[in-house]
């Protein structure tokens, strides 16, 4: 007997008010529904175990590492004769690959790289135009400005063998949340081409040490150009096809991507270099060289060349129990969806759907105001208990 309390001549049934509602399980003996349900559950299980856990490794906590980069550019030795460089003006070769040749100069890294002190980027000059200027007025005068020498026209020169310069890339990365820290000399590295494949044959170049454990990475500029899709500097410039890249300049982005999720051994960390050309761009920088303390005379160096930026990216992972539990919880949600689909099938599609509906949902009988006779509100010939 339930607990009752009289109030104003009426009895309050607390068992009804505070009733506990639970799920009613109905076993429908139909093998077609059972096969459909188990098929959905098997698909969900395969999705969780194979795709989510085995392939996507969704039990890992991921972090994008940060780090530092130190660059050092050196001239490539030994120098080659200018006569062997077809873009240099020598004899009657006034054009190469459809573009005008220019006289070439040998500059070392201190002259070619401008400016010198940059950590994660560098600018290698490939063409320089030098213009001599002088000042024949007082700098305190508002209208005073430099003028070009009439008897000294600007000179245009290519710098010989810039693509043979080598770049030392000393980089380290740190993932503070995961507590992972490594230096490039401890890791295995690769250079990727434009199709996402590892470039082969780099080890044959003695100036290339990418991927050699225990040594910092050294790579020629020509390898960076090749990875970006440049066969050489004497093709059309990205911003102006009527000029060569050597003449006009270009900008490259070098992404250093770290990963340890390529295998199930998370202690094996490797990195990849991916070089991308910034489309429709060129690069130039101007430098003023003065004659000692005499500010009345100067030479303007209009430099064009290859600006290269280095960026660190990628993802590192470590096992994380909360992440694993969230993945399983998401999978359980898919099981609920599979049950809902089966319910829709037998309640809306199968021939005996009205019979299944009557067994799945129990509806309470509503008495008339004048009597307490029960009514069949399911429409299936089954009446609820008399009140």
Largest sheet: 10 strands, mixed
Please, what is the oligomeric state? single chain
Task: Give me the count of strands.
Answer: 18
Q: What is the helix fraction of residues, given as a range?
A: 10-25%
Q: State which percent range the strand residues make up.
A: 25-35%
Structural class determined from secondary elements: alpha+beta
Kindly report how far apart the N and C termini lie.
15 Å
Nearest-integer average pLDDT: 87
- Low-confidence regions: none
Output the number of helix runs: 7
Characterize the structure shown.
By secondary structure, the chain is an alpha+beta fold. The chain has 7 helices and 18 strands. Strands 3, 7, 8, 9, 10, 13, 15, 16, 17 and 18 form a 10-stranded mixed sheet that branches. Strand 1 and strand 2 form a beta hairpin. Helix 2 (about 30-55) runs antiparallel to helix 6. The longest helix is centred in the C-terminal third of the chain and has 28 residues, at about 320-350.
Protein traits:
387 residues, alpha+beta, 4-stranded antiparallel sheet, 7 helices, 18 strands
Fold blueprint:
Elements: E1 4-7, E2 10-13, H1 14-17, H2 31-55, E3 60-63, E4 66-74, E5 95-96, E6 99-100, E7 104-105, H3 109-112, E8 121-134, E9 147-148, E10 155-159, E11 166-175, E12 180-183, E13 188-191, E14 217-220, H4 221-227, H5 245-248, E15 250-259, E16 270-277, E17 284-291, E18 294-319, H6 321-348, H7 353-360
Parallel strand pairs: 7-10, 13-16, 15-18
Antiparallel strand pairs: 1-2, 3-18, 4-11, 5-6, 8-9, 8-10, 8-18, 11-12, 11-14, 15-16, 17-18
